[in-house]
Amino acid sequence: MGKLSGRIAIITGAGSGLGQATALTFANEGATIVVAELREEAAASTVAKIEEGGGKAKAIIGDISNVDYVKKLIDETITEFGQIDILVNNAGVPMSFTPIEEVTEEQWDLQLNVNAKAAFLTSKYAIPHMKKKGKGSIVNISSIASKRVRPGLTAYCAAKGAIVLLTQALAIEVANQGIRVNAINPGPAETPMLEKFFASMDPVEGRKLFENSVPIGRLCEPEDIANMSLYLCSDEASFITGAVYDVDGGRGL
Ligand SMILES: NC(=O)c1ccc[n+]([C@@H]2O[C@H](COP(=O)([O-])OP(=O)(O)OC[C@H]3O[C@@H](n4cnc5c(N)ncnc54)[C@H](O)[C@@H]3O)[C@@H](O)[C@H]2O)c1
Known about the structure:
This protein is of the alpha/beta class. It has one domain (about 10-245): Rossmann fold (3-Layer(aba) Sandwich), CATH 3.40.50. The chain is about 45% helix and about 15% strand. A 7-stranded parallel beta sheet has the order 3-2-1-4-5-6-7, with helices on both faces. It binds nicotinamide-adenine-dinucleotide. Nicotinamide-adenine-dinucleotide (NAD) binds next to helix 1.
């Protein structure tokens, strides 16, 4: 028996990086995975990896910041699997260092829509199903940038801060209904997103800057985040809600 046997988990942005690692880890522990992803090929690769390992997964393609897609995601999951036990709001978009005068309204809206509003939408439509069951776990992937802010990342930090407060406000609202809501602040992680943060810099220097910012002396591996999400979604964490965990090698200190 795996730690998540028989559970249905929606993981957003599961086609790459932290989301894919989380999907594979959860599938290994017996969960059926719904891969909610913008990019069809990326989603297909995650589904294939899960199936190769003997697990079960389904991809539902679309933009997680679009309400019609979110409704379809929840409806199709319920029609096919009958329940939603776990929701991991992981999909996100990076921001390269940009001074405030150069941040466009489009950039701001994209950051807030994908990195914050999407978690509101998925929670809004998934929670009624969790309430019916009297049980559920939501994990929101924020960033250590929500707490240790950096210049040139205004919109990203604002969006990541919003998802932390959404986590806590929602946690207290649904705590007495068996639903737990927690957040993780990853540090700089070894995923395709990382280099987009230093797109405006020399790539070697940019990478060094991020590596040197982590006291433990290495970048975050996708499995570091997957393991924390697994813990938070397992029964071992049944008394934990509204918590925000830094999984960052000490970066936030
Ligand atoms: N990589 C890092 O250094 C780092 C650090 C802290 C926090 N994070 C956060 O971790 C999460 C995962 O990041 P990652 O590093 O794995 O990035 P990634 O780019 O490897 O993966 C993100 C995935 O989200 C998908 N996605 C993007 N916009 C979407 C949308 N509108 N709808 C559906 N899917 C969408 C992408 O297609 C991609 O597959 C993000 O929320 C990110 O902000 C990353």
